[in-house]
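pls design
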């Protein structure tokens, strides 16, 4: 029987907890120091396979950097999931430990979470553990969706804890994510006689100014308020300083709330982008809000956890596409993700480990 969850008012001074902290810190640093930028996860995947097999777990190499581990002969009802890859290094590898903080590339997003998963597995805590690559790339490039297409039943669980950085809160659901090209066509000409041309950049600027007046739009879903937001994130146009540009292009990013279908989201973006022509480049659906899942409710009650909407896109959406309930929960801090000075707090690693140990 799992021992009761402990609330650590002075967690890092206790001998037992210090041992847990040291194990988690060492494992996090070990993982940070193995390069695993997106598309270069093979070395880390091989390392994880070796560590877990040496620890006596049943380990399935599912191909394409996807790994499933669990206690031999079991199918645990809860699956912990984590991505192996990081964004590109920013002179922040190798990692280092300073007091109870672990610094380094991916420490928060999400080598610290992977360390918690591995240490729970080595301790015999009954979870399924899923590792996969290419999550930091556009969703179409992720290794997770092809895995679910070919092996959905192998990795299915009653609940998936996607261990993205959440400060050890539950972040339910996630926003959908559209990227689109917004193109404007004018007529090129000599910049000394602009009246003989039609400036595509000026057309774009006027349309973008109207677009920018739209405020974030709140949408309540299962008691959680998600904010739909649309932004121009890139703009390009022009070929020379003495040529009126005939074409201009803006990249638009639209984050939409659960409850909208991908098709409805594309229609809404078209309403916002008045003028020019809009071409959808990618559309990653929003993630279902699984707060009614009995395991999710029990986790929230056990740890007295805050439950918030996930104001971003995460692989929760991919699990949802295949009918698998998933929520976001992990020890990393969202504000630390992708920072050059990225770190994870040792106390957060310990809290996640102890809570998940008890939850199992």
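designed seq:
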């Amino acid at each position: 029987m799992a021992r009761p969850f402990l609330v650590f008012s002075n967690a890092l001074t206790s001998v037992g907890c210090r041992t847990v902290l040291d194990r988690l810190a060492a494992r996090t640093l070990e993982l940070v120091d193995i390069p695993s930028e997106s598309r270069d996860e093979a070395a880390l995947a091989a390392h994880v396979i070796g560590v877990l097999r040496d620890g006596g777990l049943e380990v399935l190499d599912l191909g394409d950097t996807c790994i499933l581990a669990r206690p031999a002969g079991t199918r645990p009802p809860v699956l912990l999931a984590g991505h192996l890859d990081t964004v590109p290094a920013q002179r922040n590898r190798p990692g280092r430990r300073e007091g109870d903080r672990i610094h380094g590339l991916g420490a928060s997003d999400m080598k610290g979470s992977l360390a918690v998963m591995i240490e729970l597995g080595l301790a015999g805590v009954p979870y399924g553990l899923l590792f996969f690559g290419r999550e930091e790339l556009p969703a179409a490039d992720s290794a997770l969706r092809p895995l679910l297409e070919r092996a959905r039943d192998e990795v299915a669980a009653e609940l998936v804890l996607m261990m993205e950085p959440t400060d050890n809160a539950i972040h339910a659901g996630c926003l959908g994510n559209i990227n689109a090209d917004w193109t404007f066509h004018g007529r090129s000409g000599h910049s000394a006689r602009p009246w003989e041309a039609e400036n595509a950049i000026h057309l774009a600027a006027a349309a973008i100014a109207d677009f920018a007046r739209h405020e974030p739009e709140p949408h309540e879903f299962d008691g959680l308020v998600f904010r739909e937001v649309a932004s121009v994130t890139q703009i390009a146009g022009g070929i020379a300083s003495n040529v009126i540009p005939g074409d201009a292009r803006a990249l638009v990013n639209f984050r939409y709330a659960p409850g909208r279908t991908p098709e409805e989201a594309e229609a809404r973006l078209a309403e916002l982008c008045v003028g020019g022509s809009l071409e959808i480049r990618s559309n990653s659906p929003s993630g279902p809000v699984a707060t009614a899942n009995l395991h999710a409710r029990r986790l929230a009650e056990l740890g007295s956890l805050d439950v918030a909407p996930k104001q971003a896109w995460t692989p929760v959406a991919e699990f949802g596409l295949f009918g698998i309930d998933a929520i976001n929960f992990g020890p990393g801090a969202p504000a630390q993700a992708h920072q050059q000075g990225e770190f994870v707090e040792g106390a957060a690693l310990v809290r996640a480990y102890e809570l998940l140990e008890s939850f199992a």
